[in-house]
Amino acid sequence: MRIKKEAPVQKNEELEVDVIDLTYQGMGVAKVSDFPIFIEDALPGERVQVKVLKVKKNFAFGKLEKIIKASPDRVQAIDRRFTQSGIAPLQHLAYPKQLEFKQHQIKELFNKAHLDVQVSPTIGMDNPSKYRNKAQIPVRKINGKLETGFYRRHSHDLIPIEDFYIQDPHIDEAIIKVRDILRDYHVSAYNEVTHKGCIRNIMVRYGRATHEMMVVLVTNGKNLPHKEDIIKAIQSKLPDLDSLIQNVNDSHGNRLMGDKNVLLAGKAYIEDELLDTKFLISPMSFYQVNPIQTEKLYSLAIDKAQLSKDDVVVDAYCGIGTISLAMAPKVKHVYGVDVVSEAIEDARKNAKLNQIDNATFVIAKAEDQMKKWADEGIRPNVVVVDPPRKGIDPTFIESVLEMKPERLVYVSCNPATLVRDCQALIDGGYEIKQPVQPVDQFPQTPHVESVTVLERGK
Ligand SMILES: C[S@@+](CC[C@H](N)C(=O)[O-])C[C@H]1O[C@@H](n2cnc3c(N)ncnc32)[C@H](O)[C@@H]1O
What we know:
- By secondary structure, the protein is α+β, with helices and mostly antiparallel strands.
- It folds into three domains: 14-74, CATH 2.40.50.140; 134-273, CATH 2.40.50.1070; 290-456, 3-Layer(aba) Sandwich (Rossmann fold).
- The protein contains ten helices and 22 strands.
- The strands form four sheets. Strands 15, 16, 17, 18, 19, 20, 21 and 22 form an eight-stranded mixed beta sheet that branches. A seven-stranded mixed beta sheet has the order 8-7-6-9-10-11-12, with helices on one face. It has a five-stranded mixed β-barrel with strand order 1-2-3-5-4.
- Helix 4 (227-237) links the parallel strand 10 (213-219) and strand 11.
- Helix 3 (169-184) runs antiparallel to helix 4 (227-237).
- The longest helix is centred in the N-terminal third of the chain and has 18 residues, at 95-112.
- The protein starts with 13 loop residues before the first strand and ends with a strand.
- The structure holds S-adenosylmethionine.
- The site of S-adenosylmethionine has 19 residues, from helix 6 and strand 16.
- Residues 8-66 form the TRAM domain.
- This is RNA methyltransferase, TrmA family.
């Protein structure tokens, strides 16, 4: 007979504990008889008083009530709401320590997989705030008023916020202006319980190099009351706005954007520049959110690819062709693939915009297209991957092993899937000889970006 094990802590219990670690989500970890308690805002080395909020089978969540002994790495938090909303959950950790935490996280995951891989110190920012070039801000009604802000973590309760701390201030300013116009015209905010109300969220993109700006009003259905007046008011309050778009999203659930875009004013895209290359960016296309660090990240990826004039490169998960087009002038041909059709349409336009004629872009799942290219006999010397958090598909790895590129440059935003995929590539004969290089794309948050080079063994 199995005996049900009791958790050693109970809901609402008050405890004094030592914080021993930080989770990959940036929460402090304490243990009571080996049972982990995750505590927001607590740092390793601290002794804290916590109140147990929730007890699950294998762990509990605790609320930090009092810091009894503070870590020397603790700094004054800018605003409690940035932790509550998850905008900047590491704001209380000194920036150099955030960089160490990110390096350590990657190292630990490789160690756990018994892979002997070196990890270099994280490349950080001189000014680790106000860096984001994109915001997607939820809109809700609070106390009868349309508000913009961010959700409390693990909930859909909106906390009104005007200064988002990690976003370019031009974006914060635009959101306040648009919010006030929507209030003036009594446009309703979306209510996800009743599925009624008009504005679901406001997306803003800002080109750091070009200062071009796009505002997207995401609406629950086609109707946008007082459309013409709102367009005029936005143009008057944001005279330099380059693109105003309505995105229709009448889906139930958490999808941020719908499939249909209606151009309200200006262009259907904005332009920006990275590494002396120009890019058109449509509302649905992925574009890295920290342009200063992106240049460092891509320069590293390009250097580490050791490109030469006769090389054929595959850039998988290529988005609007950022890496492909920065590499194209150095090689014979680049093949890019992405599953989002708008991104590939942008990539093709971006090739023309930069007078690049040695890049081919395909709309497909990377795993399907790699197999097709392998079957067609395409044999790249270098494969670059920059996948979403879930990493690369096993069938993609099979095609890499068939194509036998000399190098695979892996740009990763999730060290857990990076390590899993590296393991599969190492099993297939690849080696990691150079240290993995983390680059801090998301200061004040626990997100970790890195570049790893896998070389084909002899
Ligand atoms: C992290 S972004 C990288 C984009 C680009 N390399 C850049 O830096 O701008 C990941 C990209 O993968 C694409 N994507 C997601 N799943 C995919 C799949 N199965 N096959 C191809 N592309 C995919 C997304 O559309 C997105 O553009």
